[in-house]
Amino acid sequence: MSITARQIVLAQHPHGMPTDEDLPLREKTLDAPAQGEVLVRVIYLSLDPYMRGRMSQAKSYAAGVEIGQPITAESICEVADSKADGLSKGDIVLARTGWVDHAVIRGEDCRKIDPSLAPISTHLGVMGMPGFTAWVGLIVHGKVKSGDRVCVSSAAGAVGQIVGQIAKAKGATAIGIAGGPEKCQEVEETFGFDACVDYKTGDFKSSLESAAGDGFDIYFENVGGDVLFKVLPLMKEFGRVPLCGMIAWYNLTSAPEGPDMAPQIWRNILSKKLTVRGFINYDDIEHHDAFLQDMSGWLKDGTVKYREDIRDGLENAPAYFRDLLSGGNRGKMVVKVGEDPTE
To answer: Which residues form the Enoyl reductase (ER) domain (predicted)?
Structure first.
């Protein structure tokens, strides 16, 4: 038996912000799963900034998406048919299917999800890659400790909101940077940061200086751009900078306008003797069990709260992705592709 799957594919490499022409909706006929494979129905699809890099021809830490293939992504799925040991019809799994509504994949590439632990969509967010990224970046690479002053950019985003809450759980002060008064209010009131600075206001620099006090011990970097230029001079000597992302630069097609800021960046790193550590979370997979233990406990006792931005329709994923890259999301962006049997 075959099934027709809907897919959002890469038709051409985007030049700047991805368009609907770059990411069209197409159909593909899938064969029945072979031995060791499963047919899955996608319920929730994760949208994350790193996907912009996978659409590019530029060399990166992971292979890019090939022309004509679905955009890479993790998803929460229901097993519709199984020829794989250990997986049965109706199981809920985490898998890397891409932007699709159905897929045939190897059973060994699926991880079963226990729906009783938390809403299944959270395994794309606070219990999944964004949560693990926040935990690894701050604890393993940032080496956060009680008394630290931690600054995190994109503080209302899927990773940033968790970074600040982990900082608080470890006895540190959490200062967020976000865009707009609503996001800043949420960062402070919902996620419990000590303060949040709005980078869209005219007094961003002076407000950030006031929030820095005698300097930041850790800057968790998600953004790059002007925010990075403003934060680095406020770092303490021997400060730590876990480098997670640079969303402000993902759509650049040429060098940013204005003066070359590289000398200023390097001067701050040298003079303040900073440790800047780029990291990709799958390099730290040996810490995953410790992360799950910490995060499940924090969720149960209310130490960590989360916000999801769940939107409907696979066909709308390109528009949602543009909104994500423009900062229009409120929390972890997830696309609901199909019915959730656990609701």
So the answer is: 19-335
- What is the tens place of the pLDDT at every residue in 109-166? 999 998 988 899 999 999 999 999 999 999 999 999 999 999 999 999 999 999 999 9
Given a contact cutoff of 8 angstroms between Cβ atoms, the answer to whether 176 and 152 are in contact is yes
Under DSSP, the state recorded for 66 is: P
DSSP state letter for 70: B
User: How many other C-beta atoms lie within 10 A of the C-beta of residue 268?
Assistant: 19
CA 285 to chain centre: 16
Q: Hey, is 151 helix, strand or coil?
A: strand
**What are the tens digits of pLDDT across the range 227-241?**
999 999 999 999 999
Closest to 7 (Cα-Cα) out of 21, 34, 27, 23: 27
Architecture of domain 129-284+292-298: 3-Layer(aba) Sandwich (3.40)
Which residues share a beta bridge with 72?
A: none
Q: Please say whether the beta carbons of 107 and 81 come within 8 A.
A: no
Q: What is the pTM of this model?
A: 0.83
Q: How big is the CA angle at 84 (ends 80 and 90), to the nearest 5 degrees?
A: 30
Strand locations in 47-91, DSSP E? 75-82
Report how far residue 56's alpha carbon sits from residue 33's, in angstroms, rounded to the nearest whole number.
31
- Quick count: other Cβ atoms within 10 Å of Cβ 285? 11
Structure tokens at 71: 């955009």
Contact between 198 and 179 (Cβ < 8 Å): yes
CATH of domain 3-125+307-336: 3.90.180.10
The whole-angstrom separation of Cα 38 and Cα 109 is: 10
CA 19, chain centre distance (Å): 21
In the chain, helix, strand, coil percent, each to 5? Answer: 30, 25, 45
Beta strands in 98-160 (DSSP E): 102-106, 111-112, 149-152
Domain residue extents for the chain: 3-125+307-336, 129-284+292-298
d(CA 205, CA 125) in angstroms, rounded, equals: 31
